[in-house]
Amino acid sequence: MQACREGSAGLPGWLVFAYNGGMTRHFAAIDFSADSPEVARRLIGVTVLVDGVGGRIVETEAYDPAEAASHSFNGPTKRNFSMFGPPGVSYVYRSHGLHWCLNFVCREPGHAAGVLIRAIEPTHGIERMRERRGMDELRLLCAGPGRLSQALGVTGAHNNLPLDSAPFQLIACAAPPAVVSGVRIGISKAVELPWRFGLAGSAFLSKPFRD
């Protein structure tokens, strides 16, 4: 897969992807070509590892180009180009010039939907996470998108990579977990959409859900 081939479909030549797979990317018991809220809900309980370091996903948020909070709302740019690629790849961006944020692309190529991984429960490589974060408290190592990216060593070098091969590994949960939902946080547009999902009762969320 590459993002520099001449193409059509009304997209810039640098954006059109060479992709030899089908339109469906199904792994870790998730169909990544589904709508972003469905993918975001299904990701709860899945274990995500980056070079063997990571844990169980306990909080996600869904984004779609039809709503103004999404980075793809105004179309493709050289910052968000990976959102327009095939489902099942990473989209990593820097928030406010400070923190890297890890997202999973979903829907068909060109649609540009994604899921922000907001928090995980650390389970693998915890000491490595503590070194990277410079702190010991387990609950706060990955409670928030910037924190978890730092703990997992995620940077811009992890952008636009397939999620079903190294350095990423996604492991399906053994049984469907109890999932809660609510409005997304830290945004100022499309604030009414209930597209934030979390593991019920988790102590590792970035912020509690409202009752």
Report what the structure shows.
This protein has a single domain, classed as Methylpurine-DNA glycosylase (MPG) (3-methyladenine DNA Glycosylase, Chain A). Strand 1 and strand 2 (30-31) form a beta hairpin. 11% of the residues lie in helices and 27% in strands. The protein is α+β, with helices and mostly antiparallel strands and 211 residues long. It is globular, with a radius of gyration of 16 Å. It has helices at residues 36-43, 126-133, 145-152; strands at 26-27, 30-31, 47-50, 53-63, 90-95, 99-106, 113-124, 168-171, 179-182, 196-199.
Task: Break the fold down into its secondary structure elements and pairings.
Elements (H helix, E strand, L loop, with lengths): L25 E2 L2 E2 L4 H8 L3 E4 L2 E11 L26 E6 L3 E8 L6 E12 L1 H8 L11 H8 L15 E4 L7 E4 L13 E4 L12
Antiparallel strand pairs: 1-2, 3-4, 3-8, 4-7, 4-10, 5-6, 6-7, 9-10
Helix pairs in contact: 2-3
Fourth CATH level, the homologous superfamily: Methylpurine-DNA glycosylase (MPG)
- The proportion of strand residues reads 25-35%
Order of helices and strands: EEHEEEEEHHEEE
The outline comes out as globular
Q: Structural class of the secondary structure composition? A: alpha+beta
How many distinct domains?
Answer: 1
Q: Characterize the main sheet.
A: 8 strands, antiparallel
Mean pLDDT: 89
At the third CATH level, what is the topology name? 3-methyladenine DNA Glycosylase, Chain A
Q: Calculate the terminal CA-CA distance, rounded to whole Å.
A: 43 Å
